[in-house]
């Protein structure tokens, strides 16, 4: 027995297993792996070029619009329209909807901001659509409404015994109330949005002046972009969405996707489009596309901003991105035929909707980011027979990245972090887009984005002032977690698996490669591990 314990281990079995794996790899490498990888490189290169062309075209249009001063809303004389409205005293009736669901931290902010809007008090109705399941919170929201009613504001507190249709269902039922019949316009604000007092004065004149206008969309202003590095990176992505995508859509096609909040609709446009529908998780985009097909025009007013909150917990952000990626893909599948057969709008606008708005931005952008930069390029490192040109592997991605990042000049020093972050999130978005296209499980999953509101403000106020500057760039803020299973729930296996794959490719390139791809691969693997273990964003106690 003593001899057995101290006997040298037999390596024959290990050597045999290794040789078998090596033989299996070599047997499929040439006939299977290399052809498939070459095909993947071709497909991903085509998608990269599609995304590159779309980004360059939008950047060019945006630059021309800015240099020539051709922003669509600038052709209107807002001051003259306001004066005309003042002289006529014909103020239209406006409905303001605030849909909410268990918004404990922010309901007072949104209700207070909306009730403080500058507009004749007898000409607007505030409709609080409360789908909260917490009875105590419902009482608190109703008390807040009663407080403003006592101040002379026309507030209607509406609840439902169900959540059918989620947000779309609440908005639809809100428009069906009898007191809404006299309203001509409806403004919508999510529960964390706080419009300035002059919001209606800065938006309604456009709708009065142009009877073809169905929607006026304002820009979002983020009150917690300094909360953590994750919110700074979100700000970079969303700034591009507003500065480029919506500005270009407004100035060239009179169309862009409604953001679901901080906008004001002509109620007739909603009716012509068939009303709110809950067939996808992007009811706002669904309504915008259908209204556009009916011939209604949209305008984006970038000078009007509405304060709101970015999701600062990684869990909330993942749920939001699933909804924002799955919903458009699902809507693309449902509406492609309807868009193609619509004769009311030009073929040019229809092709723009299908190709640029849906296919390139909502499908290709996610797929090429994940499959090319996180799967195919690392695979080419361990299969050197497949060559990547610098134009496709470096120059095109670099150009796309720079065009995205210049919308937020103050965060250019975070460019590398933004690239790594977006590449990791592309896995989650790609999976969601595939679920939407296939209408698989979770296709209609609706999870309200968690807002921290005053809770985070109170917590921030307790921090020593000496650490305030460092806190701006923290990756993780840990608060005492009382439930030990919270850490386990924050682990994301797919991200960790991809991180291990990229780490393997990085080590292989470091040992045997002739290029320096291992630098990128090591950084990207670290990002996958960091986010795979949930070490990003703000963590709050249950």
TrEMBL record:
Keywords: Cell wall biogenesis/degradation, Glycosyltransferase, Golgi apparatus, Membrane, Transferase, Transmembrane, Transmembrane helix. It catalyses: GDP-mannose + (glucomannan)n = GDP + (glucomannan)n+1. Pfam families: Glyco_trans_2_3. One of its GO terms (cellular component) is Golgi membrane. SUPFAM superfamilies: Nucleotide-diphospho-sugar transferases. InterPro entries: Glyco_trans_2-like, Nucleotide-diphossugar_trans. It is a multi-pass membrane protein. It is an enzyme of class 2 (transferase). Its EC number is 2.4.1.32. One of its GO terms (molecular function) is glucomannan 4-beta-mannosyltransferase activity. GO terms for biological process: cell wall organization. It comes from the Eukaryota. It is found in: Golgi apparatus membrane. The chain crosses the membrane at residues 353-382, 517-540. Residues 186-382 form the Glycosyltransferase 2-like domain. Belongs to the glycosyltransferase 2 family. Plant cellulose synthase-like A subfamily. This is glucomannan 4-beta-mannosyltransferase. It comes from Lupinus luteus. The lineage of its organism: Eukaryota, Viridiplantae, Streptophyta, Embryophyta, Tracheophyta.
